[in-house]
Amino acid sequence: MASNLPQSIADILAQYKSRPFDSALKETLKEPGVASLLWKDYCQSELVKAFPKSDRPISIPKDITWLDQEFRTKQATWRADLIGRIGRTAVLHIEQQTDHEPVAAARRLMHYAANIATYFNFKRQIIQIYYYTGDAPMKWEKRVSESALVDNSNGAITNRFLAIDSGSHDPARMLASNDFNYAVLGLLARNIPDERSFVKRLIALARSQFDSTDRMHKLVHCVTIAFLRGRAEIVWNEVTLVEKNNMLQDPFWSRIVEDVRTETRKRHVAIFRLMEDFKSKFDSKMSDDDLDRILDIFSWDDIETMRQNLEVAEFAGQVFANTAFLRPEKKKSRSFTLSQN
């Protein structure tokens, strides 16, 4: 029996992959002990180089007080991914990115470091982790060594941070930590020798550590995170029928479905209004097929571009310049059916 949701979770994950994935991943990274284990596994001896003023290696505790992510200045508002207070002397900043461009990433980390330091009046040490989840291996132009430490220094400006490529995770080692929340990140490794065996052991760990309610939420995150590497189907097939039924009722997925519906309605209303302006200005009407395609592929950036084009266009064809409508159609992401069998 297929899912009774009006719009299947599988389609949501396929079409809006980054949104639910980012939400699930950030919740996982905030779980007690996860950031601590990441830091311990990747930083190692580079701690002294990263923080030369420290008289001993810096450790991240299991429990972190997570803070609001917005830092306002007179000119702009910066919104970081995760900000946590470590005792009275340090602040942890984790920035997660699926798309990686070295210069842009280094600039982003430096901006956030400066804004966070300023916010705390330069009285707290800033510890940064750049957590990359993209498909291709992460590359940097500047490296201290083959370790995960990136040194972005240029005269008066210095920024050092830990850059972790999730594709390089050691799933077996993460599973051996006996921490389900940390082991879930092993699903992001590019190479898992025996994927099904790993998933079986991961789900067994969840069943041993959480009651039924918490376990369903953890397994929902598990499927969502696994989808980024095409492993959601493996996870889904290993859970029981009862677990599947409960997972489909989990608020995380329900909230994402409702958020997507709301955003889609707003986007479609904006497109219909633009199409009315288009029709009024050029006495021209789109075919139903073309309108359906625009409703399906237009992002908010495309809508804004079309709005700007409408103000200056001298003929109808100019209205869609630099929008998805004129770009080659991409093949749809591979999906799967969340069957309850």
Order of helices and strands: HHHHEEEEEHEEEHHHHHHHHH
Q: Decide which structural class fits the backbone.
A: alpha/beta
> Spans of 5+ residues with little confidence (pLDDT < 50)?
1-7, 45-50, 72-76, 331-341
Provide the residue-averaged pLDDT.
81
Coarse shape: globular
Describe how the helices and strands are arranged.
Blueprint: H1 9-15, H2 18-29, H3 34-43, H4 46-50, E1 65-66, E2 70-72, E3 77-79, E4 82-86, E5 90-97, H5 102-119, E6 125-132, E7 149-154, E8 157-165, H6 171-176, H7 180-184, H8 195-209, H9 212-227, H10 232-238, H11 241-247, H12 251-282, H13 288-297, H14 300-312
Parallel strand pairs: 5-6, 6-8
Antiparallel strand pairs: 1-4, 2-3, 4-5, 7-8
Please tag this protein with its features.
6-stranded mixed sheet, 341 residues, two-stranded antiparallel sheet, 48% helix, disordered C terminus, 13% strand, alpha/beta
How would you characterize this protein structure?
The structure is a single chain. Helix content is 48%, strand content 13%. It is an alpha/beta fold and 341 residues long. It is globular. It starts with 8 loop residues before the first helix and ends in a 29-residue tail after the last helix.
